[in-house]
Design brief:
The chain is an alpha/beta fold. It contains ten helices and 14 strands. Helix 2 links the parallel strand 2 and strand 3. The longest helix is centred in the N-terminal third of the chain and has 12 residues.
Length: about 270
């Protein structure tokens, strides 16, 4: 069996639980993987800026895939290696579809967010994620590239959006959910697995050399695509269905425990170093 040279880690519910702290065990095992030559990658729906509290805890991290795979940053100099923006011609179409549902709407430009009206929830969201929020009269005022459009609402409404034919049948954009109350639309070239494929091409790997860990709706394509896709026990059913294996929850250091077993079996590392 080929070794796994790239380790891709979702953040929330995968290596981070209710606390913002990454466990000592997880950090120790990831350091062992790095010493064996593995490339460590965070793969998250968060904006790059909102990952920094996690990044600061992981000394040996190589890359951050953010915005559901629409962006790759190199750790150390914050260089953006990969950017996939929502086509400007598609933005009005998506906003028109959003208008059919009673949700709060957010546009992401770089790491800032733009809204047409604010709320207590949005104020708290911006503060929690350390992003600047701009209130504008209309999304039509945004002239810069938009990397993501987000609709936030009740789980039931977001579920209706998720099953809306016009969202699922379009080749013009990529629609996904990171949380039950989040519905996100990005470039059709976005996706955690597509960003990982870019890294594979850079290092001469294939998807067979990637082991990924996740728990949410937005992790399904990555888990399916990876040579070894591992779900945590309390993942959404969609992830559990496609995973190659299942590990313990984040509270029980599921990722670290699984990687320890892979290390013991000589399956982590890069034979070229």
């Amino acid at each position: 069996m080929d070794k796994f040279g790239i380790i891709a880690l979702d953040i929330d519910g995968t290596i981070k639980g209710d606390s913002n702290e990454i466990s000592t065990k997880t950090k120790k095992v990831l350091s062992q993987c790095k010493n064996l030559g593995a490339i460590l990658v965070l793969a998250t729906g968060r904006s790059y800026r909102s990952t920094q509290q996690i990044v600061s805890q992981l000394d040996n991290l190589d890359y951050v895939i953010s915005f559901q795979g629409a962006q790759i940053n190199k750790i150390g100099n914050d260089e953006i290696l990969w950017n996939q923006f929502l086509p400007k011609t598609v933005v009005p179409e998506v906003l028109n579809l959003f208008s059919k549902f009673n949700t709060e709407k957010v546009a992401y430009v770089n790491d800032d967010i733009y809204v047409e009206q604010t709320s207590d929830w949005l104020d708290a969201y911006a503060k929690r994620n350390q992003v600047d929020m701009h209130v504008i009269e209309s999304f039509e005022q945004i002239s810069d590239e938009i990397i993501r459009l987000l609709a936030v609402g009740d789980d039931e409404i977001i579920g209706e959006m998720d099953s809306e034919y016009e969202f699922r049948a379009s080749d013009s954009f990529y629609a996904t959910r990171s949380l039950p109350h989040f519905f996100e639309v990005l470039s059709p070239s976005a996706g955690k697995e597509k960003a990982l494929q870019w890294l594979c091409d850079k290092y001469g790997f294939t998807n067979k050399n990637v082991i990924s860990f996740g728990n949410g709706f937005n992790d399904v394509p990555m888990i399916s695509w990876s040579g070894k896709g591992v779900a945590l026990k309390e993942s959404v059913p969609e992830v559990l269905k496609v995973a190659d294996d299942i590990t313990e929850t984040v509270e029980y250091d599921g990722v670290a425990r699984y990687l320890e077993s892979m290390i013991e079996n000589g399956l982590i590392g890069n034979d070229s170093i």
